[in-house]
Description:
The relative contact order is 0.07. The chain has four domains: 27-137, Immunoglobulin-like; 141-263, Sandwich (Immunoglobulin-like); 277-392, Immunoglobulin-like (Sandwich), CATH 2.60.40; 413-419 and 465-582, no CATH class. By secondary structure, it is an alpha+beta fold. Helix content is 24%, strand content 37%. Strands 1, 2, 4, 5 and 6 form a five-stranded mixed β-sheet that branches. Strands 11, 13, 15, 16 and 17 form a five-stranded antiparallel β-sheet that branches. Strands 23, 25, 26, 27 and 28 form a five-stranded antiparallel β-sheet that branches. α5 packs antiparallel against α9 and α8 (517-530) packs antiparallel against α9 (541-557). Keywords: Membrane, Transmembrane, Transmembrane helix. This is DUF7939 domain-containing protein. Residues 449-469 are annotated as: Disordered. The chain crosses the membrane at residues 424-444.
Amino acid sequence: MSSLLPAGKKILPSVLRIAALLAVVTWVPSGFASLTTTVDRTSLSTIEVMTLIVRLENVNSDDSPDFSSLLSDFEIVQQSGPSIRQNLTIRNGRRLEERLTEWRLLLRPKRSGQLLVPALSLAGYQSRVFTVSVSTPSDSLKRQLREYVFIETEVDRDTTYVQGQLIYSVRLFHNGYISGDTPKAPELTDAIVEVLEPARRYEEVVDRRNYYVLEQTYGIYPLKSGTLALAPETFFGTRNVRGIRQRTERVSAISGGHEITVNPKPKAFPSDNWLPASALALTETWSPEQDTFDVGEPINRTITLTAQGVSSSVLPRLGFDAGGRAKTYTDPPVATDHVSATGTTGQLTTTVGIVPTEPGELIIPTVQIPWWNTDDESLRWAELPGRVITINATAAPFDAPPLQTSSPAALSPQIVTEVRYDPMGWYLTGLFLLLWLGTLTLLIKRRHGRPRSPTNTTSLKESNLSTPDPAKRLTQLRDACRNNDAEAVINALRQWLRATFGPSVTVTQWLQQQADAELTQQVTDLQASLFSSTGSVWQGGDTLIADIERSENARKSGASEHNTNANGVGLAALNPGLEPTNLVV
């Protein structure tokens, strides 16, 4: 134990000396704190740029200087930073740290003369003030800069109207390999700017020099009257310089600006729907294309409005009132925009369904749309002429010849088939025919496959010759209405009418006999839903069946006591001159 004590006495002084040495090491900045600004040139022209370098030394700050004071005389073309560099060294036992924060700005002078670069402030430090000399570019300098890169801009007109179209084209010409940011789309607060097409790239010879061209076209739509200023387009980049050592050289280009006069809507324009365009067309189509229709026969009228120089969002919505002889159903308009290098063409297509409700002349009014021709600055009118459509009452299918008692044939009514163009009806008829043929084939096979039974034959004949049950048909109609199936309802309605009033009674004849405005409206809405191009779902089933049952109860309660044959009563009421005893079942 005693042999360890001398060693302990030697170690303790060494530890104390090391601790004392570390205590004298302190953090000391390498230099004074400062904020400085420098430029790479003090003399330039209005079509050149200079680089402003801002340095903050030995100050620990996360803020940036306020550069807005530069904007009075300079345009900040490009800005980068902050970039931070730190260096830590220990010298003579002292810890030294260097910190440098740097910003770089590319400035273009807005005018010629002696321009002031103002003092900048940050973290309590301030830079110095100095001036740069800006001159008007000489022709030789313009030619020198134009040799490598230049910009051309063009507008299709110097005067336009609020919401009118202005075509603005920007073309960047460059010779050889150039790197840099291409001009951006104009930033306007009082206009809408749209890119009309993707940028085009091609080659063009200018002053016997071959240039690569990058062209971009915009559509500009002013939102208020006054002067619309388009600032000059600029390009700043670098080009590769050939030589023994590869190096780059700064290049720049600037175009001229434009001032556009934007006129307000003329006071003489007769409508609130202001429509400035360079061309406009108003067309229509009818389906079917004819001048005579029957009551209840659906008609489609499609109106197309096309305007060059405006989008579809500003086109007026169209529609018309057919008066009291028809119901109209206007589908939501279909809006489309066609965009090309020549501008925007807006199109609005409106389809109106017409269902005649009573015979006579249906007057379709004239459609007139005022618009302003921006090419010759004149008021124009687009017009669809009015027309008169003849609406016929449904042909009476029960007009029978006078009764002839000497001939048995006179006891049978004349049956006239009413022909209507109903594509869905033909499809259903074909389907029912196929099902009937299949059933008939199955019955024949079963008949040949088992012994004949008089009882079965009699039952089959009685089933085929039995009269349709009106109550059963009404139940089917009620079920279809509850499902709001428009096609099933119209078919069930026809089946019920045939079972109740006779095989040739039409929906239109039944409605005329009922003289019930509410019931007629419900059936009209049902028929209109079958040809609507919007695919809307009919939801009037509950109301329709309620109106039918109400009408049917009224008919039954008001029937005369001596009319014992219900079918005969209904048929005679719908077709005067046809007695109940003439009905052949």
